[in-house]
Each structure stands twice: as structure tokens, then as C-alpha cells.
What does this fold into?
Amino acid sequence: MEVNTHTQRGNPRALLPIGIFLALYLGCGILFEYILKIPQGFYQTPAIVVFLIALFAACVQNRKLDFNAKLKVMAHGVADENILTMCLVFLTAGAFSGAISAAGGADSTVNLFLTFLPSKAAVGGLFLIACFVSVSMGTSVGTISALAPFAVSMSQATGYDVVLCIAAVASGAMFGDNLSMISDTTIAAVRTQGCEMKDKFRMNFFIVLPAAVVTLALFLILTPAGSGELQVGAYSFWKVLPYLVVLVGALVGVNVFLILIAGSVLSLIVGVASGAFPWTQVFSVMGGGVQAMYDITVISIIVACIGALVREYGGIQWLIAFVSRHTKSKRGAQLGIGALVAAVDVAVANNTVAIVMTGSIAKEISEEYHIDPRRTASLLDIFASVMQGLIPFGAQLLYASAGAGVSAVQIMPYMFYCYLMAVSAILFILFWPEKRTGQ
It folds into this structure.
């Protein structure tokens, strides 16, 4: 049976699997943690199990397609370039994390960092580092994978809450995901709207700069909430070297895979040379890190399957039609574009895919209401990144939670940059007419 990948009619019931996941994952987590007062309540509901339940719900929907046809739809979703790249980044990052942790590189890097940075500025410094790395690397997931061990070790050294530290990294990662000229989301936004990359960057930066400044201030203000006792240990430059290679490579725009592979090899060399572990364990230390990424890799695959079925059943088409029907003014059109791409991102859990899927309708709305393409491209990228950085089943928070050993839901309240980015964009739409932006 041939799979119809271009369902014409929208169907709100196609979004049911997403609703089931949110109800079970958030509902059970809140029930266990805050009502029943079970310690580590959110961990009583493993995300992978809830995703499997949601996938089962998606598979039993739409009896017009037999199960073999649904398998083909899911296979197309998993075969998407973004999904495959993301899974490979997870595994490669796991190898790097395992190697550098075993070599003692993360602890040495934190101690070096704290030697020159005041304790009270540590979390704000993490946010700034993540901003620079993500802009240079062009990937939020790659940034989080590179800096997560750093955030955890810094939390242990300073006594500051690990959730706050990893949230600073994840927030900075979303800054570059939305702005970098080599980011998939930026490229997709520019291509679908037909504007120049440099023009979109300037406008986008103007919109989100206030959010970044306020976010930095918030992290600096909240830092004293930790113990504040600065415990700086000894560091070895050679153990820091793999991290420096990763960070510098990211800043100059080297491919994320090459960066992580180089960092892994250097970590193994340093680890063996320093006596941190024998040469016979070089594969096991990397293997331990890779194994730690198995859950998130499988979750990414399951989410891709759910997203493909939701799209096939007409869930995405319904969202697009719903937003289009409620657009009645120029400001309303811009808010509608933001709401549309945000809603689709929740449905597919991938901001690049969300931009690609909504780009054409956003362009049509923009042309009808005479909205500058640079403005539309910026809004698409911003609102997709807002939701991607907040949904607990998105790759960014899943990886951050895995790297820090905390629940994704615990990180959500501290994703200040994403909340403020949405506020900045809405204020920009409401109070900053196009004629005042130099268009």
C-alpha cells in the first residue's frame, strides 16, 4: 500500500498522542513530586515509557492505514537527515563525555575557569560561554553536549544548584541555535522566506538582545542562592587541553563531529599519559559515555515516529489552517506566524522541521499583509527556538537532563532566555512597526 505523505484535510484528533504524552508525563510527575510528596517524583515516570504509550496511541489511530503503511510512515520520519544527525551527535558526544570525564578533564577545566572567574559570576559566565559556542557551532545540541560535563563539575566545585548551571548552558545554547549563520533553523528560515542571511541576523539579533541581557542579569542575581563557598582545586593544563580544542574548534566553526572526535582522542591520550586509566580501558571509558546516551537516542527515534504519524494523519495541517483562519491584521499575522511555528514545533519536537513545514504558509501570510521577509524569517526562528528550548521532550532539554542527571521538567522553570525571547518578540511585534527597524 502506498503511503500518502500529503494528507489534504486537517484533523485535530491527530494531535492526541502529544496530548497523551503531556498529560501522563507532566501529570504523573506533578502528582508524584508535589502532591504525593514522593522523593524524586518525576523519575517515577520514565520519559521513554510514556513516549512508547504515546506511540502506541498514534499507531491505533487512523484505521484507513494498515499497520505496514504506518511503519513506512514512521520509517520516513526516522530517516530524516536532522533526526539521523541528532542521534549521531548524541552518541559521539557520549564518547567525548565518557573519555574526558575519565581523564579528569571536566574537573580541571572547572578549576581553571573558577581560578580566573569570581564565584558569583560563575553561572552567568556559563551562559555567556554557551552563547559564544552555540553561535560558532550552529547547533544547540552540540553546545549542550560539549558543556554539560563542564556545568556539572562546576556545580560540584561551587555548591551551586546543578539545575541552575545546566539551565544556563541550555539557555545559551538556544541563543546560538536562533542566531548562528550555520544553524539549520536559521538556514531554513532564510531559505523559506527568500531573504539574505546577514539581514536576518541583524534583525534577529536586535530582537533577542534584550532577552539575552536580562537572562545574564537573572543568572548573576540567582547565583548567590547556592552555597557560595568557592572550592577551587588543582588543575592540569594537559587535562584542560581536550576541552580547549573543543571550545576553540566550535568558535571557528569546525564540524561538530570532527570537534567531538578530536576531543575524544585527545582525552584518551591525556588520560593514559596521566595515569587516569590504563590503555586497555580506552574503549570502555568511551563505551560508558555512549551507553549513557542510549535512552535519549531511542527517545529521539520514537519522537520522530510520533511526529511522522501526526503529520500523516493531518495534525500539522489542522494547526496551519487554524492559525490561518484567525489571522486578521498585520500584527495578528505576525503573532499568528509565531503561534503556528510554535505549535508545530510542539507537535514534531524539532525546530528545523517546524520551520520547514510552516515556511510556505508563513510566506503566503507575509505577502498578503506586506510583512518584510527578514521580519518573518526572524519570527519563525525565534518562536520555533522558544518552544524547542521549553518542551520537556525536545532534544535540548532531554540531553541537558541526561547530562546533569536531573529531570527535564526541573530545568524548564530556569530557561529564562526562552521565556524572555518570546516576550521580546511579542513586544517587537506589538510596539515596533516595520518603518522603525530600518526596513
